[in-house]
User: Fold Aldo/keto reductase from Limosilactobacillus balticus.
Amino acid sequence: METRTLGKDLTVTAIGLGCMGFSHGYGKPTDVDEAVKTIRAAYDMGYRFFDTAEIYQGTNPDGSINYNEELVGKALHDVRDQVVIATKFGIAAHEGTGIKVDSSPKTIRKSVEGSLKRLNTDHIDLYYQHRIDPNVEPETVAKVMQELMDEGKITHWGISEANEDYLRRANAVCKVTAVQNRYSMMYREYEALFPVLEELNIGLVAFSPLANGLLTGQIKQSSFSDKDLRNKMPQFTPEALEKNKELLALLDKIAADHDATPAQISLAWMVNKKPYIVPIPGSRHLNRIEDNLKAAQIKMTPEEVAQIDKALDAVPMSEVFGGTKIEK
Assistant:
């Protein structure tokens, strides 16, 4: 499996597995045993980079909490030294249409202890601030990250949905290894951050690289289960699905040229664009998990990537979900 380096020295597979959907966001959680089995199967097929967070949780049929970190910990415990596990702190709760954030030093320390316990590990390989807390300075967060590194509880840290100013200030106190930002063919705003990432030698871990599944080309109508977050996402309205047909036709054409699927092309496009981009698509289905991993084998020239960018600039597409607002 192709690998790449985030930051100075964190080696990961070129494509990682986003584990959120087993517990959170896409309807009822996957059965615990089935989820553990699937995550372990992903390891067996070649994945070595797994992403979770303390806030990813759902409710099992018996009323118990389905903690995503526990699933990851159970699946990978006996191969712990062969994988990179990323988790996150800083989202305290979901509140209505927004989220409540808390990155105070006291909360960070409580969070890291909880994550270590749920993951059944003595260290976290990549610890992200899940969202920026407007009430806590980046220097304060970075200072705590350095302390956790000195204590051996984490080895690298990153920031999710980072902007340039926050990233520079945090990085000046404690070296940032990666940002985890929303990035896909439909959401390219963070390309403006590429020069900063290159200057500071910081990797980009791309979440929602398939626009929450739209870029697979498999979603023809919005008929999701209850409590599926996609019910409220703008790219899945009937009008949006109609508007995005030309985009999906473009993907189908490129996929045919490479004997690949639209999802694989969506991932290969970003993997071939920059050597420091690592997408982390999520799925509950082993066939899709395997297909996603194979996207790293698809080679595109810089000229082809540029041609795709140009086509994306011209093709009509709907609005796409850009994140949940932070409650002040």
Remarks:
- The two ends are 43 Å apart (CA to CA).
